[in-house]
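Submission sheet (multi-component)
Chains listed below:
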Amino acid sequence: MRDTKVKRMKMKKARRKMNWGLTVLAIPGFAFLAAFYYVPLIGIVIPFKQVDYAKGIWGSDWVGFKNFEFLFKSQDAFRITRNTLCLNAMFITLTLVSAIFLAILMNELTRKKIKVYQTAMFIPYFVSWVVASYVVYAMLSPDMGVIPNLMESAGKDPINFYATPKVWPVILTIAYLWKNIGYMTLLFYATLISIDSSYLEAAAIDGANRRQQVFKIMIPYMMPTIVMMALLQIGKIFYSDFGMFYFLTRNSGALYSTTDVIDTYVYRALRVTGDIGISSAAALYQSIVGFILVLVSNLIVKKRNNDYAIF
Amino acid sequence: MVQKKGTKTISQIIINIIFIVIALCCVVPLFYILAASFTDEMSLAKEGYHLLPTKFSLEAFKYVFKNPAQILNAYVVTIVVTVGGTLLSLLCTSMLAYVMARKDYKFRNVLSFLVFFTLLFNGGMVASYIVNTQYYNLKDTIFAMILPYIIMPWHVFLMNGFFKDTPMALIEAAKIDGASEAYIFFKIVAPISKPAFATIGLFTAFTYWNDWWLSMLYINENKLTSLQYYLYRIMNNIEFLRSSMAAGVSVDLSQIPGETARMALCVVAVGPMLIVFPFFQKYFVKGITVGSVKG
Amino acid sequence: MRKKMRKGFAVTLAMVTLAGSLTGCGKSEEQKSQSTGDSSSGLEEVTLTWYIPGNGPQTDTAKVEDAIYEYLKDDLNVRIDFVECDWGSYDDKVQMAIASQEAFDLCYTAHWSNNFYNNVSKNAFLELNDLLDEYGKDLKELIPDEGWKAATVNGNIYAVPNMQIWAYQGAIGVENSVLEKYNFDLTQVKELKDMEPLFEQIKADNPDMYPIVNCGPAELLNNYQNTLGYEELAGSKIPGALEYGDDSMTVVNQFELPQVQEFFKMMYEWNQKGYFRSDSATVTDENMDIQIGKSVSKLTSTYKPGVETDTKAKTGKDFTFQQIGESHLSTSSITAALTAVSRTSKNPERAMMFLNKLNTDKELYNLVCFGIEGEHYTKDGNYAIPVENSAYNPNQDWVYGDQFNALYREGQGEDDWARTEEINNSAEPSLALGFSFDSTPVQTQLASVSAVVDEYYSSLATGMVNPDEVLPEFLEKLEQAGSKDLIAECQKQLDEWVKENK
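Outcome: structure written.
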């Protein structure tokens, strides 16, 4: 038994030798990864504890899945899950599609002009959500906002945006696009310009029109990047950018029907109950769903084209 | 099919118009904030937000810079954290990503998975806090604002994507010449991957620059307060500040800015980076061009 | 190449040392505190860490800490280490410290910030009964029984109440110039509705104005509940309330009370008429509109002598206040400011000795509140005048301890503390004073119910929606979320409490 095992290992080793030089290079980064991501993973037990500080977190009683109850028993469970999934799905597809589209358009322009556009489009990416919330408030504030003022001067009744839930999916999507489109476009553009121009020239000589060039050459070339971006974001589909949902909506209760997501819901639950078990339970639930989603999508991708898969 | 010149220029114009509109949409809203910060408080409350100050005033900035020593100190802390953090992070991230990208490395898949796993799973805020304060003793040290962000899984993946394109032939040739792996990475791979370093470096720098969370959790000393946290504090406590300022000093209270001061704080927080960014962008775009030539 | 590599290393090394030097300052202080010296009292020197909310670190905190040490050296031999947070992040910070079982000694707690009850139910605080008897005799005597009752949970005292205004007393404040202009007699106002004629006139003259503030801490219903005659037992805005004077001790859902439903209707009407901002629900700064002259009145739940000065300081406007309704003393009115000893404290005895001294020694208390005399403030009789741009001026005496020991601030009256105590003493204690609700058995329901409250309450309280349509929906959703269980649990605990305390 042992003999065959050793033999097999030896054979494996022969195929791929341990490369110490590379291992040394990976060590510092891996050490930080271990120290700041893997060590804190001990926290994964917190959701299963009834926290009692007299006993300490690790010594507290086990309570099984009791801390998860509030997430599923709540009448809002469906609503927050729907909001989280739908809004995120909308964000992901819209940003991907429009970023690819813009990147292809950008590729048509001269480098000089691109620089100006890129700078302008990139700026919102570096603005934090807190600052972005002020921007949105400046636009929408019923009293002083730009849009209500415009509506008023146009003779229409200005709406109080912060009390009108149905417009918020749109507002949030616009805000998300506003902040991320420059970054995503640049990412795809960077891939596009690395296409060997002789490919495109050859295609043009062969009589391929613009559309064919786009669909037969450019998009396939960008595919690995697209797949990676999509996979990474699908993994996060169950999370939402807390800053965005909390600050942009000014935590207005009247908007919850369309803007309340798992993260904001859990945050508020934590505020009243002060129980870290409950909030940790929600976080774990989000992680697991995200993890499964990614594993599945990665598997699908792997079946179709192994090169595109992340692992 | 040969395209006519005429249609080409028309399509160029249309594309340009599209980008001009998008670019304006991205930038114009920020100008409202800028204008508001230079507006008189009363005027803002009465007239609302406009692209140009309805009544020009520097009160908000005077108020924000009332304690210049503290702001200056906060700038120094943030700059040290940003520069130090970005350099260290770039070094560790790039090396890790490079190893992950090497197709001939034995543990490549394991490593990728380990990095990917952290993208989705984490022990939560409380566990991180316990580990950082009690095991690593990071509380009230500048490292608390640097070390947790040294490795960001997302950045590792981005860089990994860049390094995947490195031609294997180049590496093998160097190996035959007897170069060590470190030499190959630092002298051959890194120089041709400048765009990757520029891109990730920029993202890392902005992460450090914009972060107030770590300093809120771990820093209690004034000396180590970062810019963003300082601004966050004023922003949150503007009301409180107003009342504490009023105590003892006789000032016309209606002159103390509120909303405009918040806007001024936004400008102070974002401004410097936005001024620096276009210069950086120059190098950024150049780096990308280098990348395209390489491909 | 090797040379280059070494250079790289040198840079990294330099960076690390630079960072090290930056953190150095923190370290040296630590060492200082470790050098233990025995005092003449024979006690070994200890450092007490104290979490305090406020406006973040003061510039001269270290100096004040030194001064406190000098003052206490020969007696308690205690060094205080303030961890000064700002209100915005106090909850997060102190909760982290508690959750990670960091060793600290004292912290500010209340029913509304760093939630006292949650902390007690999770055993984060020490029981103080024995400590008080042994090391805090003066303190125990100083604070009236009502105070200790309010800080008692399940028979144990878990915190020291900070003496300040304890009574709930609603009062309406109106800007003097407006009262003069409209020749309005504020003393005739007996309830909020009586303000309507004035508001109507103001609104007719200035359609752009919003006569009253209804946002943030000045939200009307929240400040008016005492006047409407009930107190909340299960938590702020959480169903589970007791009406004052109800001998049967029946816990009710306050949103089902007729007077509350009436109030929602009035709010809806007022919103329609523009008596306050239509978007009040999303505005947090209560003073802004008064400061810029858009609003001219506000409601407070805790009237106290000197409230006019306070308002003037915050808004720059001169106000007159009229008390409406009766004053009451309830658990939550007292638990608005408490100091607790952490279970992780290594020196609980010394912490109690310090609290005892702080609350009984005026000089120590004023050192903590105002800083060093001559450097941070000057003394003028019983008044403390902060120097201009004082490097230590937390301006929140009530967070630290017995406010009645404090020097007066500019604008306060010579007998303000005496008058405040007078109000406390004359206020009617609630029948449930001393009862506190433990939400642990119904935590799931509490989380769901509070989510419903978050969604509906603000819209109703700021009249954004018509209560005739929305209130039934609100009540129904509350019930679905488990408000009945919550109220039943509250009733059960109250009954038990009555049995034990009567």
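Remark: The radius of gyration of chain A is 25 Å.
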